[in-house]
Amino acid sequence: MRRRLLVLVASTVSLALVAFLAPLAFLAGVLAADRATADALVRAQSLVPVVSAGGRTGLELALEQANSAGGFPLTVFLPSGGVLGAPAAESDAVRLAFTGRSLTANASGGREILVAVQGTSARTAVIRTFVSDEDLTRGVARARAILGLLGLGLLLISLVVADRLARSQVRLISGLARVSHRLAAGELSARAPAEGPREVREVATALNHLAGRILVLLAQEREAVADLSHRLRTPLTALRLEADALPESEQATRVSAAVESMERMVTQVIKEARRSRQDATGECDAALVVAERLDYWAMLARDQDRRVTRDLAGSPVTVGLTAEALATCVDALLENVFAHTPEGTPFAVRLDRRPDGGAVLVVGDEGPGFGGGDPARRGVSGGASTGLGLDITRRAAERSGGSLETAGGPDGGAFVIVELGPPPN
Fold first, then answer.
1. What's the pLDDT tens digit per position in 43-99?
2. Whole domain around residue 82: which residue ranges?
3. Element at 84 (helix H, strand E)
4. Are 91 and 77 in contact (CB under 8 A)?
């Protein structure tokens, strides 16, 4: 935009300068030629009284003094055919002047000024002076150079002023773009200053209104999710009471653990829904969280005759997620293994440190693998699930500064690679 404004101003000012300065440059040449011609004519007319007197001796003396003083050369063509003064050929213009007409005629290398003088005799004498092309254009180049420099100076000044104006406009628009990028990055408190031209102020006001509306909608969504999750506490309480009433057994322990895990997830959903995205990040020891969740799922793996391979880096492995958020991700990945692979299918969990901080969590199984499409896309599922597990994990990984990828093994199976970023500084 800034460059386009400068090009527009430069072209407009250039056209105006050409329309103004070109006639002046032409007029400078005309005025210089007219001035030289007028000076030469005055010089020639100064000899008219001497020529009219008819004295040859006085005329020769006057011509000698005039030509010795410099300036335009003077020549007198006498009626008798003689020539006095500066040597000059009798041209057609001179012969025409003998008829009694004073005139100006173009000649080779300049211009002839001819003055017809009627003397004491009946015949006419002609006074001739010559103005060279150099005299006709004297000072024209300098005048045109001054005009050119003046035009260039005006053009530069206009470009500087236009650049200042364009920079102020571009700065305002760039500020709006930066605010929009901050909003897109989740900084919903960002606002654009309503300043500048009316149109820019209207855009800033609309952007601020949009940001405020987003805050309202997010708050409504969080409250709706929190309220819905809170309603689940009543049946969970009933399940807790039923689980506590069961006789002590391995099955009762698993039911109690499942109810406890569900209560923890509901609590986390309420917390996540009631806080902003900026407050959703934290940190935890990924090695401890992954090990604890593997221990929890190990009982179900033994019941289904699944071989579990774990390869966890030594504690601590600090990542930029809270322990609750990471536990939810691990549970979602392991739940997918149990839900979408036959009983007896082995799986493996590996946790490695990243060189630049954070960790890489890989969950792989030897099941049928993923179907078509993107399994991490929200709402997509190849089985009878909601299709939200991988999407929840992906969003949590991205919130920490990482990512999620899915892949198939060379001999079948499925792998989910979750990169977790380090905690914020």
1. 999 889 888 887 788 888 888 888 888 889 999 998 888 899 989 988 999 999 988
2. 2-141
3. strand 83-85
4. no
Q: How far apart are CA 336 and CA 389, in angstroms?
A: 8
What confidence tens digit (pLDDT) does each residue in 266-304 have?
A: 766 666 665 544 445 678 999 999 999 999 888 888 888
Pair of tokens at residue 341: 């692979």
Q: 121 is written with which tokens?
A: 């005799």
Looking at the structure of the chain, the number of domains it has is 2
Backbone angles phi, psi at 396, to 5 degrees: -65, -40
Q: Give the domain-ending residue among 141, 161, 189.
A: 141
Angle between helices 389-399 and 323-340 (to 10 degrees): 150
3 or 231: whose pLDDT is higher? 3
The angle subtended at Cα 391 by Cα 389 and Cα 397, nearest 5°, is 105
What is the Cα Rg of the chain in Å? Answer: 50
- Write the CATH number for 361: 3.30.565.10
Q: What is the mean pLDDT of residues 230-256?
A: 73
Residues 87 and 74 sit within 8 Å (Cβ to Cβ): no
The residue type found at 157 is I
- Whether residue 319 is contained in a domain is answered as yes
The answer to whether residue 40 is domain-embedded is yes
DSSP H or E stretch at residue 389? helix 389-399
Q: What is the pTM of this model?
A: 0.47
Taking the C-alpha atoms of residue 169 and residue 200, their distance in angstroms, rounded to an integer, is: 9
Helix ranges restricted to H, 127-249: 133-136, 140-184, 198-231, 233-245
Residue 393 belongs to some domain of the structure: yes
Helix (H) or strand (E) holding 311: strand 308-312
Of 365, 351, 360, whose CA–CA distance to 315 is shortest?
351
Domain boundary among 141, 166, 191: 141
d(CA 256, CA 260): 6
Taking only the tens place, the pLDDT of each residue in 394-422 is 888 888 889 999 888 777 788 999 999 99
